Amino acid sequence: MMVLFFHAARLAMVAFDPYMSSRPIAEALLKSPPGKLIVDHHYYTFSSVFFYTNRPALIINGRFHNLEYGSYAPGAPAVFPTDEDVARLWSGLERYYLVANASALPRVEKLVGADHIHIVISSGGKLALTNHPLAQSLAGGSSRP
Asked: Which structural domains are found in the chain, ordered by start?
C-alpha cells in the first residue's frame, strides 16, 4: 500500500512541479543572453527564480507587506520601481527580463506595448518576458501562451 502512495506522490510532484516551482523559468533565463531581472509584484511567488539564477532583481510595485519595512530607510537599495520606471527601462537598449504570472500579461502589454514583449518561456501559469528578441533556439521560442 505504501508503494502505491509513494508512486502517486511522485506522479503528483512531476505533474504539479511547473505550478509549484519557477525552476523551468530560471533555467530558461540562465540559457538566455545576459540581462537585468525584473519580477512582477510578489517576491515570494518567484523567490525560486532569485535562488536558481543567483541574480538580484527589481520588484515592480513590490513595496508592501513585510518588504516595505526598511525599504524607505536611508541607503536602502532602490529595487522597487513603479510601472512608469519599468516602461522607461523596457524601452531602452539594455536587455531586461520580466517574470510574471500569465494573468499579468494584458497589464504588461498595456504598460510597455505588446510589440515590445518577447516571451522567453511559459511554464505553470508563469511567464518570462524580454524586451529584445531572442534566437528561437535559446529559450524555446516566443509564441504567446
From this structure: 17-139 (3.40.50)
Residues 86, 107: Cα–Cα separation, whole Å: 12
Q: Rounded to 10 degrees, what is the CA torsion of 113, 115, 120, 123? A: 60
**Are the CB atoms for 24 and 48 separated by under 8 Å?**
no
Q: Degrees (nearest 5) of the Cα angle 8, 9, 11?
A: 65
The C-alpha torsion from 91 through 78 and 119 to 104, rounded to 10°, is -100
Phi, psi (rounded to 5 degrees) for 58: -90, 150
pTM of whole model > 0.70?
yes
Strand order in the sheet with 126-130: 57-60, 36-40, 96-101, 126-130, 118-123
3-state SS class at 31: helix
* pLDDT tens column, 86-139: 999 999 999 999 999 999 999 999 999 999 999 999 998 999 999 999 976 444
